[in-house]
Specification:
12 helices, five-stranded antiparallel β-sheet, alpha+beta, Chitinase A, domain 3, Alpha-Beta Plaits, single chain
Length: 541
């Protein structure tokens, strides 16, 4: 086999590989000899079929297999001989007439084109200075968490007949909405639950029901927000005829052993202890999140090397598709952005470059220090993933067994965390005591002036129902959307670009939970559908 480097411009490589015809003939002969003991042909005793007859009958087909195998083997051998590390699978172009190669009249010649992983020097991690934010879980923190937990478990009791609704009350209502006197799709509901002050309905809707009594008919006038998910309703005035059917007041919440028993614990003290342990884990994760983010920022600053264009382009396309997916679920396009699309693309391309650079860097650290993911670690991650889908564990395991790429996507964040831990062990890490608010602050808060519409790993603003199925209607605020591919909270994320109009101040951030609607809960057009959550991919930034 002869290998010639025909192009070595930057990270681009082209190799010409030539395999002599006699080498192919030798492989063909070996395969035909092997077939002789296995093939069964009419008129011949087992194992007695002449090789010449096999060549005449199966020669071209077998030679095709030989060529395919030889291309694969020789291309890998050429890469090893030249000590190259392709960024992607090389593209292969056969040269000459393939028929001549099959007939043994010409050598097998093909061209390999690919980009290589750049060679670069790693910085001295012992000179890396990092801060580890720490914060103690105080009794006050536990008190707040306990009250929030109790609040989420609250029950509602009917108010006395004729009592007026107050903020915090739960109303059962029917309503019909109209725009310019015409009812619209998704604008009506029956037996809907509305908690005054919850902010679940569009701005101004809930407040107008304060003071209403059971049996009252109330006319509610609102204006749909300019950024409302259903474009046909955005910015329009609507009038809702609301029938108040029942008014319930929140029952008094008692922090006692009975509350603890709802969670399977024997006493309030045990519940406090459980909350404290859970919060310590959350504090530790946020501490690590900030340190990892700071580490990645510094590593990005310390290393500057040429990046394979194809890797950057692939990463950029994934980011951009995610962004377009998010816009689509807001019924918006790039034309609705408050800055030129070219500028947005340029910013996202920089993020793609950062991700590729950090991905290559962490991979290099892992390779040079023999860091790998064990089967035990992978199985543990798979088990944790399966616990998120109760009742579907078997299907999930089968999916991963049949999809090597999915396994790789499960392995990647484990590998990344192990490399980060390795670097942290070498770095100069100083603890810094901060407040809880500083610990849980968004790492991106100081980096961008844009609104952040991505999920966060530690958002505690989850919705809770009260055992009553709510019908979704246009009067309700659009559901907070989930990013198509959720980046880890400790990574630099693309800033979510604002549309031309600024979101209402009362809009909530999306909750971290991947909540699924009830199977029978049909969403009206006005209700923004949640984006599907993509399979987790390696996050390099």
């Amino acid at each position: 086999m002869q290998v010639t480097v025909t192009n070595a411009d930057g990270l681009k490589r082209e190799l010409k590989v030539q395999v002599p015809a006699q080498d192919l003939e030798a492989k063909l002969g070996a395969k035909l000899d092997e077939m002789k003991t296995q093939v069964r042909l009419k008129g011949f005793r087992p194992g007695k079929v002449p090789v010449s007859h096999l060549r005449k009958t199966f020669g071209k087909q077998v030679m095709g297999d030989v060529i395919q195998e030889t291309v694969g083997e020789s291309s890998q051998q050429a890469i090893r001989d030249e000590a190259l590390r392709p960024a992607f699978q090389p593209s292969i172009d056969l040269e000459g007439e393939i028929q001549d190669v099959i007939e043994g009249k010409a050598d097998l010649t093909f061209k390999m084109s690919f980009e290589v992983i750049p060679a670069f020097e790693l910085s001295d991690f012992s000179k890396l200075s990092l801060e580890r934010l720490t914060s103690d879980v105080t009794d006050e923190d536990i008190d707040v968490a306990l009250k929030r937990l109790a609040e989420n478990q609250k029950n509602f009791e009917p108010r006395e007949e004729g009592a007026a609704a107050e903020e915090g009350d739960l109303l059962t209502v029917d309503f019909v909405g109209k725009i310019d006197g015409e009812a619209f799709e998704g604008g009506s509901a029956e037996d809907a639950n509305l908690e005054i002050g919850s902010g679940r309905f569009i701005p101004g809707f809930e407040e107008q029901l304060t003071g209403a009594k059971a049996g009252d008919d109330v006319e509610v006038k609102v204006t749909f927000p300019a950024e409302y998910g259903a474009k046909e309703l955005a910015g329009k005035d609507a009038v809702f005829a609301v029938k108040v059917k029942e008014v319930k007041a929140p029952a008094e919440i008692t922090l006692d052993d009975e509350l603890a028993k709802r969670f399977g614990l024997e006493s309030l003290e045990k519940l406090r202890e459980a909350l404290a342990e859970q919060m310590k884990g959350e504090y530790a994760r946020m501490s690590r999140t900030h340190m990892k983010r700071a580490m990645l920022d510094k590593l990005d600053e310390l290393h500057d090397f040429e990046l394979p264009p194809s890797m950057v382009e692939q990463e950029f396309e994934q980011i951009w598709k995610q962004f377009e997916h998010e816009l689509q679920h807001e019924n918006k396009t790039a034309a609705d952005l408050d800055e030129p699309e070219e500028d947005v693309r340029a910013e996202y391309r920089k993020i793609a470059e950062r991700r590729v650079r950090l991905g290559l860097l962490l991979a290099e650290v892992g390779e040079k220090n023999n860091i790998s993911v064990t089967e035990q670690e992978l199985n543990q991650a798979l088990a944790e993933r399966a616990r998120q889908f109760p009742g579907q564990e078997q299907q999930l395991y089968q999916y991963y067994q049949q999809n090597p790429q999915a396994i790789q996507e499960l392995r990647a964040p484990i590998f990344e965390d192990k490399v980060v831990d390795f670097i942290a062990e070498l770095a100069d890490v100083q603890d810094k005591v901060v407040s809880r608010d500083d610990l849980f602050a968004d790492p991106d808060a100081d980096d961008h002036d844009h609104d952040h519409d991505h999920d966060h790993d530690h958002d505690h603003d989850h919705d809770h129902d009260h055992g009553d199925k709510e019908k979704k209607a246009a009067a309700k605020k659009p559901a907070a959307k989930k990013a198509a591919s959720k980046p880890a909270a400790d990574e630099k994320k693309p800033a979510a670009k604002k549309a031309a109009s600024k979101p209402a101040a009362g809009d909530k951030k999306p909750a971290a939970g991947d909540k699924k609607p009830a199977a029978g809960d049909k969403k009206p057009a006005a209700k923004k559908a949640p984006a599907k959550k993509a399979t987790a991919k390696k996050t390099d930034d």
